[in-house]
Design a protein that fits this description.
Blueprint lengths: L1 E7 L7 E9 L2 E7 L10 E3 L4 E4 L1 E6 L37 H8 L2 E6 L7 E9 L9 E11 L2 H8 L8 H27 L10 H10 L4 E6 L2 H14 L3 E5 L7 H7 L3 E3 L18 H8 L3 E3 L11 H10 L4 H6 L3 H6 L17 E4 L12 E4 L2 E2 L1
Parallel strand pairs: 1-4, 1-5, 6-7, 9-10, 10-11, 11-12, 12-13
Antiparallel strand pairs: 1-2, 2-3, 5-14, 7-8, 8-9, 14-15, 15-16
Helix pairs in contact: 3-4, 3-5
Protein name: Amidohydrolase
InterPro entries: Amidohydro-rel, Metal-dep_hydrolase_composite, Metal_Hydrolase, Metallo-dep_Hydrolase
Pfam family, one: Amidohydro_1
Amino acid sequence: MLIIHAHLHTMAGADIADGYLRTEGNQIAELGGMPVEPKPGEEVIDAQGAGLYPGFVDAHTHLGMWEDGLTFEGDDGNEETDPVTPQLRAIDAINPVDRCFQEALHAGVTTVVTGPGSANAIGGQMAAVKTYGSCIDHMIVKAPFAIKMALGENPKSVYHGKNQAPSTRMSTAALIREQLYKAKRYQGELERAEKDEDFDMPEFDMKCEALLPALRREIQVHFHAHRADDIFTAVRIAKEFQLDYVVVHGTEAHLIAGGLVETGTRVLSGPFLCDRSKPELRNQTPSTPGILSGAGVPTAIITDHPVIPIQYLPVCAGLAVREGMDYEEALRAITINPAKICGLDHRLGSLEVGKDADLVLFDQDPLTIAAKPKMVIAGGKLV
């Protein structure tokens, strides 16, 4: 496929005002300024000056975990029977034929991170997936991608009602630490058994096994944290166990931006196109991502779908611009920034040779509520 006369918003340097982009298979093969000569038999699309962007990336959703239009039958995001469940895998719950995948794709959102909710101190294994396909095994970008952990109100509220721990922030943090220490000890016993034939292998522990990739920094830990104190608890635990961590939501992160710069903390900001539905959200403001990015905190914008329907991801970025975020930085916050924060920028987030051919074409500003993609190309195919 060859797209000609497009304004390439590369997210990898300067834009190309009158450019072309060629795909081969499911990857970007070539791009540059016009003119270009089509190859024999190549499908040619004339963009007529429209803007071509990398497919949008939403780095925190529960897409396919809470199905659209269903209640209990389609609610598979929270296992509220045990506050520590790192062994649970999102890919075993995601329904890729939920119509919200199509709504995401039609809005130009081609990659998402999805997974468990925040009822548990440790909720399970998140997955980075494409929004196109019918079998989740064929849609995976990386799984497991991250371990979901949660601080603050949600674990407290769920288990206080069951008259069991955690019912305080202290208990939530202690449960996380306890399981990480168990996994660390399990890791040491495995390593010793491999080196010493006289030392028995430890009894298989599925919870500890699930945490080993996080302890080895092979996958990330995503901390659900709204309040400033919860954010710093996440940082404290992550530093203690040398985790590759990201703060999700960061509702009060704008109040502590300087501290987050000092600790090198990355934030997935949102949702903020919604009401302040609980006490933790009392300081919610759509100015947060702009304040964070302006201070130098690596920042992406998220919907937390279904809290905000995923097709409104670019609208959220537009709202952030209205509230002070630099326009180009807002575009980056739904393309290259989430890709970089999630360690997936070798495949996603920008128009560069060798990256996935996930592309979206707009003939107007994509961050306005009136904008709708003129064309979406996913995996090198016009969808």
